[in-house]
Amino acid sequence: MMARTPLFAGNWKMHKNVKETVDFLDAFLPMAKGISSEIAFCPPFTSLWAAAEKIRGSGIKLGAQNMHWEDKGAFTGEISPLMLKEIPCDYVIIGHSERRQYFAETDETVNKKVKSAIKYGITPIICVGESLEQREKGKTLSVVLNQVEKALFEVEIKDGCDLVFAYEPIWAIGTGKVASPSDAQEVIGAIRKKLSQLYGEKLSQRIRILYGGSVKPENIKELMAQPDIDGALVGGASLDAKTFYKIASYES
Ligand code: 13P
């Protein structure tokens, strides 16, 4: 099996203005030298530029939390992939459940954004996950695999490094209720199997699949011990430099 470099991405959601972003990175950068995994931060759009200046040369990556699929046009309030490239952003979170729930994101818009991000060389972190009701009705795998398939409709990939998935059960986001490592592995293993049906075994082994939902220093080690979990998309616990450092350095 190909070794996949773990990725720990902080999704700051609507937190941290420019000053708070700079203060965070001032605290985090000295710690980052001891981390062998890949690290990415996804601050709000308004903090991206300041974050890019700060992390230059550090090896830390930057991501946005959303984007439009068009490269320009009359789309008031939207941000284009070319604008993200200019920062530059390496990643963009696509289809987070908060966007699906509050901002009318659909499997179709997710698919358009995934295609556009790959076209412009920005790696999408594609979020999928079931609600509590869907889980209780035993629909978890069908819901999640359907989201995966629709996100990847007519999406061509080159080497498996062109995209990342994040399995984020909605009931685990911001609730303190983390999925058990075996439940997370079951879904993430099923996502990898679906990817192998779509792109072949070899490419599927190169695609990183993260877990997200109440990740903390106390639960990351067990999650990372699962064979198909390649890192985490971290919300609340990524807002504090020391806490995020503890998560990203789970090995030590
Ligand atoms: P929490 O880590 O706060 O549960 O959020 C997870 C998440 O939504 C990351 O995208």
SSE blueprint and pairings:
Layout: E1 7-11, H1 18-32, E2 38-42, H2 45-55, E3 61-64, H3 81-86, E4 91-94, H4 97-102, H5 107-119, E5 123-128, H6 132-136, H7 140-151, E6 164-167, H8 181-199, H9 201-204, E7 208-212, H10 220-224, E8 231-234, H11 241-248
Parallel strand pairs: 1-2, 1-8, 2-3, 3-4, 4-5, 5-6, 6-7, 7-8
This protein binds 1,3-dihydroxyacetonephosphate.
Question: Which properties best describe this structure?
Answer:
binds 1,3-dihydroxyacetonephosphate, alpha/beta, eight-stranded parallel beta barrel, TIM Barrel, 252 residues, single chain, 11 helices
Strand residue percentage: 5-15%
CATH-derived topology of the domain at 67-240: TIM Barrel
- CATH homologous superfamily of the domain at 67-240, by name? Aldolase class I
How is the main sheet built? Answer: 8 strands, parallel, barrel
Q: What is the tally of beta strands?
A: 8
Give the averaged pLDDT, no decimals: 97
- The CATH architecture of the domain at 67-240 would be Alpha-Beta Barrel
Q: Helical element count?
A: 11
The stretches of 5 or more residues where confidence is low (pLDDT under 50) are none
- Return the structural class: alpha/beta
Taken from the alpha-carbon principal axes, the silhouette is globular
- Secondary-structure element sequence? EHEHEHEHHEHHEHHEHEH
Helix content: 40-55%
